[in-house]
Amino acid sequence: MTAFEDTTPFVLALLITFTALVCVSMWNNYNSVSSEKQFSKPKNEGPSRTRELLVRFTKFYNDLEGTSFHLYDTQLLPNPKQHIIHALYVGYDESETDDDRKAIQLGLEAIVQFQDLIGEEPFKPNFNEEIDFNLNEKLELLKNDDNINLSEEQKKYIELFKKRNFELDFHFSHLKIEREEESVDEDKDGKVEENVSHTNKN
Asked: Which of 62, 72, 109, 133 lies 20 to 30 Å from 84 when distance is taken between CA atoms?
């Protein structure tokens, strides 16, 4: 009968090989994570995305030199409408002063003036009478008055302005902002206050 072979050296070799493979795998994984972290770290801070969007939108809107009653096409915006709205939400949540919050409120009132399918030219109310600050009530009276014949263009403007108001009510409700009279101020020539761009954002 043959004696049992001593397998100790073989087992030790397997154990050493397995341990070496585990160590190599752990080392490679550590280097991979370190490289990924180093790659993802920005080379420089630069302006935040929120601030960049708000500054760009503020300048763009003020350059329009319109009024709060003008409606514009969303395609004219320097960034997608939803991106600007998100930046305004972030800006409002992180505002530290009443002036900052007021500026963001003005920004919300401005962004809802941009609606789809308006065209290159601003859509202006045309009711052959001076427009006052209570345009919402006036438009509702005009639409419900059977004695007034509205053109298709006037009806379209009323519907779009109502949509604009609905959007604004939604945003104000979401942010718990108390709705006041329109504050895209006429005494500022329809301009959004510059301190929209000076709020402290991340």
From this structure: 133
For residue 173, give the amino acid letter.
S
Q: Is residue 57 exposed (0-12), middle (13-18) or buried (19+ Cβ within 10 Å)? A: buried
Scan for tokens 């409408």, then name that residue: 81
**Helix count and strand count (H, E) for the chain:** 6, 2
- Return the closest-CA partner of residue 67 out of 133, 117, 136: 133
Distance CA 176, CA 171 (A): 8
Look up tokens 């030790």; give the residue.
12
Q: Where are the domains of the chain?
A: 7-35, 49-198
pLDDT digits (tens, 9 = 90+) for 10-50: 556 656 666 666 565 665 555 544 433 333 333 333 347 88
Task: Using a cut of 0.90, tell me whether the model's pTM lies above it.
Answer: no
Contacts of 194 (CB under 8 A, 6+ apart): 58, 62
